[in-house]
UniProtKB/TrEMBL annotation:
Protein name: ATP-binding cassette domain-containing protein
Keyword Nucleotide-binding: yes
Domain ABC transporter: 5-227
MF terms (GO), sorted A to Z: ATP binding; ATP hydrolysis activity; transmembrane transporter activity
GO CC, alphabetical: plasma membrane
PROSITE patterns found in the cross-reference section: ABC_TRANSPORTER_2
CDD domains noted in UniProt: ABC_MJ0796_LolCDE_FtsE (cd03255)
Species assigned in the record: Silvanigrella paludirubra
Position of the signal peptide: none
Amino acid sequence: MNDIINLKNLKYSYKKNSPVLDIENLNVKEGEKLFLYGPSGCGKTTFLSILSGILPAYDGSLKIFNTEFIGLKPSLRDQLRGSEMGYIFQLFNLIPYLNVLDNILLPCKISPLRRKNLSLQELKEKCVELANNLKIGKILNKKVTEISIGQQQRVAAARALIGFPKLIIADEPTSSLDADNREQFLKNLFDQCESQNTTLIFVSHDKDLKKFFSNHIYLPEINRVKS
Ligand SMILES: Nc1ncnc2c1ncn2[C@@H]1O[C@H](COP(=O)(O)OP(=O)(O)OP(=O)(O)O)[C@@H](O)[C@H]1O
């Protein structure tokens, strides 16, 4: 299996002489489901922001989809993020004035490349299929302010998965769920990632989730900056 992420000697700091991340090596294979965990403040969100190209790391090498991200123009990082990455946020970040269907379709409206040459009708059909698989098929016309937290979370997952991104980055998406719903959500997410051959990087401070993943990394162990 090919590597989707190759990282070497990656360094990041928000302020001069105050490093947050210094990671020697990390490789993630295509289709892998990686659990990245560590205590509050150890740099998890910072790391995800670098992987998704929102924050620019200043040193080392970070190849994603065989493209070197360090030194890459911000517009090209944005383009790759829009077309090939899905992000599930801790607080979901759904758009309150859009219904469920339009929230899910949003990445394809923002990034034409994310449509992968599908027509709007084909995208809507894909959206219905995804929603049915995630058990939100019956609420596509509802406002996102009128659905439960568990449903909002599955809408956020569907929005990340639409348009067959190569990589899904999930930042603590299960923190507001009880244990049963958490496990069900993970199962649904895994099934969808497997059916699309999408790589998953799932971040949490909750090490109980580790048992669901075959690959896991404790961030403080690979980060040479000690918090
Ligand atoms: N915008 C910022 N400016 C300056 N320092 C920041 C900024 N964001 C985070 N930091 C610092 O970087 C370090 C890592 O923060 P980060 O948010 O990545 O940790 P985390 O592991 O995601 O924490 P949590 O689990 O609480 O979300 C912390 O010391 C934090 O104070």
